[in-house]
Amino acid sequence: MKRVLLAGVAVLALTAAASAADLTMEPAPMAPVVAPAAFDWSGFYVGVHGGGAWGDFSTNIWQDAFGNASSVLGGVQAGYNYQINQVVLGVQTDLAYTNLTTGQDVIPGLVGVNANLNWLGSTTVRAGYAIDTWLPYVKGGFAYGETKANIDSLVFSDSKWATGWTVGAGLEKAFTKNITGFAEYDYFDLGSAAYDISNAIGTIELKNTTNVVKVGLNYKF
């Protein structure tokens, strides 16, 4: 009987010791969860773009001679961004080639007048709000373009670099730490410029406004 009691006491002691050990055992430490770093938009970038343009030409002589025109375009851009928290500020310059042309016969089969826009560019400031790898933005600034007025059958023409202003908006997406893509709409007003075709009809005033929709890729340094 004494042996049974001693065995029972030993079992109880061992059980209590095991329970105490379980209570004091610390759980294994868990690895810290590291959140991925937000994309940093700061830095220089260069890129290419392509899209479509449509616009309107008007003149002070033949009110109905010129009108709407449309064309594809392609070009390059370069700029710099600086990010402050989620606000991204930057400057950008771009230049594109297009063949926006319109015109009609003034004297059917004999005399035709034409206007066209060959080069279109801008230097703008941008402001955006970064949502990690997404960047909606607006832009605005100085615009310029090479426009030409001509009387084709008489081979009288004059070209000028007209200047004006532009505004636009777009959405940019970072695919990697160096590659971003964007879609953008811009409105250009190049004002009016004087074109001297004096051998034919003298000087005319030609005004141009153009809309551009484009997509492109940037390489961020």
TrEMBL record:
The cellular location(s) given in this protein's UniProt record come to: Cell outer membrane
* Residue intervals of the Outer membrane protein beta-barrel domain: 24-221
Q: Name one GO cellular component term.
A: cell outer membrane
The signal peptide annotation in the UniProt record is 1-20
Domain of life here?
Bacteria
**Sorted alphabetically, which keywords does the UniProt record give?**
Cell outer membrane, Membrane, Signal
Entry-linked SUPFAM superfamilies? OMPA-like
Q: Does the keyword Amino-acid biosynthesis apply?
A: no
The UniProt record lists the keyword GTP-binding: no
Question: Per its UniProt record, what InterPro entries does this chain match?
Answer: Beta-barrel_OMP (IPR027385), OMP-like (IPR051692), OMP/PagP_B-barrel (IPR011250)
User: Which PANTHER family does the record match to this protein?
Assistant: BLL7405 PROTEIN
What's the family? Belongs to the Omp25/RopB family.
Protein name, please?
Answer: Outer membrane immunogenic protein
